[in-house]
Amino acid sequence: MEGRPEQAPAAHRLAALRLAQEALTNARKHAPDAPVRVDYGPPATLIEVTNPPATGARAVPSGFGLVGLRERVEALGGHLTAGPGGAGAWRLAARIPHPVAEQNGPRT
Fold first, then answer.
1. Quick check: 71 and 15 in contact, CB under 8 A?
2. What's the CA gap between 99 and 52, in Å, rounded?
3. Contact between 93 and 81 (Cβ < 8 Å)
4. Which residues have C-beta within 8 Å of that of residue 56, sequence separation ≥ 6?
5. Cis amide prior to 53 (ω within 30 degrees)
6. Ramachandran angles phi, psi of 72, nearest 5°
């Protein structure tokens, strides 16, 4: 983990939690020992989970977890990618930009 959670908006912290939960659940189903990287930024909150190739053939039915995660990230103005990460690994990564601070100065 890099940065402090309070550096990111509350919605980002919740999204990071849900992304890690879903990615680790998928890794547990398909391959063990997935490392998690969370960087609270600014300028963006970054979440990355990579797991090694699955050992043995385990057919596990898929749900709609990634669809929901993508919708959550996009609703916050971010981008989510999930797919092969090279050498048979699987990678889930999200980048959620922090809101731009008001540039016209404080309201009076």
1. no
2. 34
3. yes
4. none
5. no
6. -60, -45
Give the three-state DSSP class for 36: strand
Amino acid (1-letter code) at residue 60: V
Query: What does the pLDDT read at residue 108?
Result: 52
**Which tens digit of pLDDT belongs to each residue from 70-87?**
999 999 999 999 988 888
pLDDT at 70: 93
> Which amino acid would we find at residue 54?
A
Q: Please provide the distance, in angstroms rounded to a whole number, between the alpha carbons at the two ends of the chain.
A: 38
Q: What residues have CB less than 8 Å from 11, skipping those under 6 apart?
A: 76
Which tokens sit at 94?
Answer: 């999200």
Q: HEC states along 42-106? A: CCEEEEEEEECCCCCCCCCCCCCHHHHHHHHHHHCCCEEEEEECCCCCEEEEEEEECCCCCCCCC
Give the span between the Cα atoms of 80 and 94, in whole angstroms.
Answer: 4
What single DSSP character describes residue 63?
A: -
